[in-house]
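Bit of a strange request maybe. I'm writing a small parser for structure token strings and I need a real example to test against, not something I typed by hand. Could someone generate the tokens for this chain?
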Amino acid sequence: MTVGSILPGRLPLSLVAQRHMSLIEQNSQALARLQQQVASGRQYVRPSEAPSSAIQAMLLQKTLERKAQMTENIQTSRSFLAATESALGSVGDALNSAKSLALAGIGDTLTSTEKEGLAVEAASLLQSVINTANTKFRGRYLFGGSHAETAPFELAGNGIVRYAGDTIAIESFADLDLLVASNVDGATAFGAMTEPIGADLNPALTLETRIADLYGGTGVDLGVIQITLESGGSQQTASVDLSGAETIGDIKTRLEAAFASGPLTLAVDIDPATRNGLRLTPSAGTITVSDLPGSTVADDLAIASGPSAQIVGGDLDPRLTLQTELADLRAGSGIDQTGGLQIVNGDRTVTVDVSSAQTIEDLLNAMRTADPDLSVGINAAGNGLSVSSR
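Reply from user aminoacidic:
Good idea to test on real output. This should exercise your parser:
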């Protein structure tokens, strides 16, 4: 380690001394840094000494921490699934015992007293199965779905077993982009819910319909479309950017605004005949709607067309939502709300008053209030209700 030469020349002695002291200090710091590297076995002490390497190290550390957490998640999930498997094994044993009791009770060889004894034993087995189905492990009920804090099964009157859980999976990350369920809900394990019933309610398209809810919730990726209005030799062409539009009303506003200055204008509304698509009407002449090269926006909105006096778009299949108006069901025909809705669930019949309901959410709330044993919601297809019994 050297101290650089300094030619004295005409420099003051104090400046020469200061320069020497500075070089000695730098060399001392370099020596101390080397000694620290040797003692610690580390090339760098502070991130600022090698920013790019520090970033790589921090990313690696973060990845290792995530992997460690995922390993813990896997171990936890395995423990829940092992407890679930053990509980299901106990239920299987109880069902085998119940089958033996049923076979023993067949025929006239047993006295009434003996059959009563079998009935008592069967009731005991039923309670045993319910207790097992309400198994709690590590603070969580195994078969309640996402309702993990309350017992999912209850033995009501007349031997009826009620299920208070749901069918939602509790998931955790087993890898960076892999979610794995750590539970089995009561509906899957014990058939605690009936198969859902429902039908396509064919909700009408409205100006409030969200673009994300089109095509059953698939939505449409919006962009630029080209529209040409032509009448008597006069032609107007506009490229309309629909990006960022959130509702059908937003699309209507942008399309009409593109031709608001005239002389030809454009009117956009919901097709009154079908109530499921758009209708584009020029003030005169014809209208042509097309996509730009590489785009499918007009086609996705079902309004791409050659020259026509009016464009009647295809079915955009809007998704049913909690805020869908009952009057907009069945393509705008609505439903009969005066006679009430009759629900037959087992040996119980109730009539639900839906006369004041305005939205799907109102209807679902009325059904839940009338029969708490119902599980009601919007079906997976997004076009109707899903109704099942617990």
